[in-house]
Amino acid sequence: MKLILGSSSPFRQAVLKKLGQSFDVIEPNIDEKSIRFNDPKTLVTAIANAKMDAVLLKVTEPAFVITSDQVVVSNGLIMEKPVSKEEAKEHLIQHRSIPPGTATAVCVANTSTGQRVCDVDFAKVYFSSIPDDLIDRLIADGRILISSGSFIVNDPIIDAYVDHIEGSLDSIEGLPLELVQSLLKQVGCDAL
Prior knowledge:
Elements: E1 2-6, H1 10-17, E2 24-25, H2 40-56, E3 63-74, E4 77-79, H3 85-95, E5 101-110, E6 115-127, H4 132-141, E7 162-166, H5 169-172, H6 177-186
Parallel strand pairs: 1-2, 1-3
Antiparallel strand pairs: 3-4, 3-5, 5-6, 6-7
Helix pairs in contact: 3-4
């Protein structure tokens, strides 16, 4: 059966490629901001499920479909993609003293059986002190403006400031592969 990633995220696509399996991409194109919950686990699960609903409407053949959503949690507050450069700067300044955690939901469906399973993975990244000029470079580069919490953990600009990670790197990158493989097995995909 075909493997489909329901995501427009280049980060998730890059992580899934690590499995060495070919896959198609279908963008869910949903309004994530219309889904609101204060609890990170509830929020990312609801958005990943909404993405799955949207992608399944576009799938016409037997397939295993993967969707995901991630938010960054810092000091108990949810940080999504920044809405401005100013908000991105606030996020990065906060990361100096409070390690950002990620809550990443993954949903997997088997279109042949209709079975769907979801779960959430948590990870945390600890930064050493991020200098002001580096924050300005990250914002000017622009890539962090499409990332929850305003950082990309393996970005060459900030990589030297990552002290250590709790959890897996691929989880922080947006798609926890161990969880993906476990959920795929639960819906009948043993090929990965």
